[in-house]
Amino acid sequence: MSVIAVNSPKSSVNLRAVAGKLLRNRTVLFGLCILVVLSLMAIFASLLWTVDPAAIKPRLRLRPPSAANWLGTDNLGRDIWSRLIYGSQVSLIVGAAVTLIAVMLGSLLGLIAGMVRWIDNVLMRMMDGMMAIPAILLAIALIGGLGPSITTICVAIAIPEIPRVARMVRSVVLTVREEAYVEAAVSMGTRLPVLMARHIVPNILAPLIVQATYIASSAILIEASLSFLGIGMPDEIPSWGNMMSDARLYFQVRPGLMLFPGICIALTVLGINRLGDGLRDMLDPRLARSVGGIK
Amino acid sequence: MTAVLEIRGLTVGLTGDADGRRTIRDIDITVPSGEIVCVVGESGSGKSVTAFSVMGLLPDGLTPMGGSIKVLGEELIGAPDQRMRTLRGSRIGMIFQEPMTALNPVMTVREQLAELLVWHGNARPSKAEINRRVLAALEDMLLPNAAQLMQAYPHQLSGGQRQRVMIAMAMLLEPVLLIADEPTTALDVTTQKQILVLIKDLVKRKNIGVLFITHDFGVVADIADRVVVMQKGAVVESGSADAVLGSPAQAYTRLLIDSVPKGIQIATAAREPTADVLAVKGLEMTYGQRGLFGRGRVTHAVRGAGFTLGRGEILGVVGESGSGKSTLARCVARLMKPTSGEINLLGTDIAAVSNATLRPHRRYIQVVFQDPYRSLNPRLSVGQSMIEGVVNFGASPQVARDEVAKLLELVGMDPHVMHRFPHEFSGGQRQRICIARALASEPQVLIADEAVSALDVTVQAQVLKLFADLRSRLGLAMLFITHDLRVAGELCDRIMVMKSGEIVESGPTADIFANPQHAYTRALFAAAPGRERLQ
């Protein structure tokens, strides 16, 4: 019987151990670095702006990089560097908000489906139905109906993610509730809410954290795609997707207009995904050989 | 008689740990042809590591550090992987504990056996040749309908058939040595008996040597020619089966032999059972449902079960896997809702009531499960797990903790262990903790569902004593579910024998042991390993 470190007892010890392992894992470290830089950019955006990102200066349009405009200007003479900084705020907010909505609602539905038999069927068929519609199409339809704003975009991207979370949580619940210790708790008269909080939810946390990172990265990608298609963030908000969309026509003149936000998106998504991969390897005892014992 | 396997001074340790602990040290074992050598020991004694060393299949992290392993004079330690692959199968056959996981679920029996012939042969044999040899191998295992069986997938076979197929695979290339790692542990006693007879017969017919790993001295008594007893990675005693079983030289060997349940009651009821605390009538449990138009499969797990249980009485429920004994236990504990019937617990019928109505009654009926490793939440301290029930029924955590401390003492554990976590305890200790936890809500009825099956024999004997002790001290009524008649015989006042969901026989333990009425009960007795030699 191997003892799995993730299950190890005292939470304070556990946290420190996990944190230590996180920092020794290169994959995670790489992802974490990118995320930290991005977060710093977003938090201190007002200090890093050199020019007002919304200021239009037609006389200075499509300028190459200079001392005043570090990365040059776009077709309306707006400063690329400042807009990139502002865009990081948008991406981070979208990623965080979508993840929060999807994880909260998804795990709630998953828990209910896993624990209550008759609701399970109804709920899961609804989730199947939602999963049959491509995420982007569903998001486009929702934004079309609700009108574009940062809130509606977050909601529209989060809704298609809910079934995925619900399914995963449900499957973990179905496995865990067959455990002998859960049955023992039932036979000791433990009420359902306590049963869930004490015995079931702790088992869901690890896969949920991993799933959350993937949701965050795909949310950032979808927001960028929607904005690029012109149905995402309103034009006055400089998001990376909007910037790429505007730059499309001027790509041959100023490739930087498109490249800089593109690189930002790619790096961000890569960083979050690496973090997720590393976390998964560490938290999933089946994949973490170094953590599990032999036979 | 030549030695097919010679192990001399074998030492295995953790890789890279030059002077640290050894998993096994200085093992000497000789397996002559035509004999069965049993390696016996409790979990952690190193018996499996010894077997894996011979196969060259040690898990990552373990390496042989010294000694030699010779099969027909050929040294295996340090032999190249390719040579080992050839030897496994052609010289050394292997069978494992769980035949379902050892067989490939997506290949038919014929394909799996044919694969061996193709890989190990020099020239690819013709299809007719393969079929002939596979059929012959299966018939050799005394499998009826071998021709049909060839086309079957593993899931379509019974446990005994699967293990026979495994043995057929191991024997297909006519090895000189067969290594059997607990090959009958996962099987029912009646099936186990058949497999043991088959292995014995094979040894005689083919003149092979068998290295047979087991934890059960009953099995040893049935088949061994020679016995090697291991403890904590070292051989403590070895010799001919008659010598070791008849007059063991070491105290540890004697302890192991004495711990084998022999079906002789260790304690009788403290007093005559009085009022019934539990009365079950006409209990039915069916799985599945008739689909539209009456199709679909319905399984009757329990049919019309009825019994009563008096205060201070221990009722044994004995049956093989699939007999419905566990379903019966889970229905009675209301971990599942029976299809119909009555479960009268202290005057209240709990068979059909809703969960909310049931809650206050739950404290009177508690369960101890089979696997002590899974019945405690690994994330909670032992104390937290134990007070859960008491707190559920209204006690403050402080009061509950004092209560639980007393119970830990009652089951023979130090109350200070409460803040520790389950993984810090051995299987036997965990089972004690589970028993203490079950007692915490002051139940009238305790259901032990195979509660000692996963434990080593010495620990099993201790836990059985604990149960008997608790019964006489607390007047607890117990429903004791087990697959092992011998264990039931040690503890129970009355025994019910179940088969295919029905109770085929019930009565006082002494009567059942002296004069079993039903043919199935008699078969169970006949199959109990070690019957002739150990009593």
Explain how this protein is built:
The complex is a heterodimer of chains A (295) and B (535). Chain A has helices at 11-24, 26-43, 45-48, 80-115, 117-131, 135-146, 150-176, 180-187, 192-228, 240-247, 256-283. Chain A is mainly α and 295 residues long. Chain A is elongated and about 75 Å long. In chain A, helix 4 (80-115) runs parallel beside helix 7 (150-176). The longest helix of chain A is centred in the C-terminal third of the chain and has 37 residues, at 192-228. Chain A has one domain (44-49, 56-291): MetI-like fold, CATH 1.10.3720. Chain A contains eleven helices and no strands. Mean pLDDT of chain A is 84; it is low at 1-13 and 288-295. With 535 residues, chain B is α/β, with parallel strands linked by helices. Helices cover 38% and strands 25% of the residues of chain B. Chain B contains 21 helices and 20 strands. In chain B, the strands form four sheets. Chain B has a six-stranded mixed beta sheet with strand order 6-7-8-3-9-10, sandwiched between helices. In chain B, strand 7, helix 8 and strand 8 (209-214) form a beta-alpha-beta unit. The longest helix of chain B has 18 residues, at 189-206. Chain B is globular and about 75 Å long. The chains are: A mainly alpha (295), B alpha/beta (535). Chains A and B meet through helix 8 and helix 9 of A and helix 13, strand 16, helix 14 and helix 16 of B.
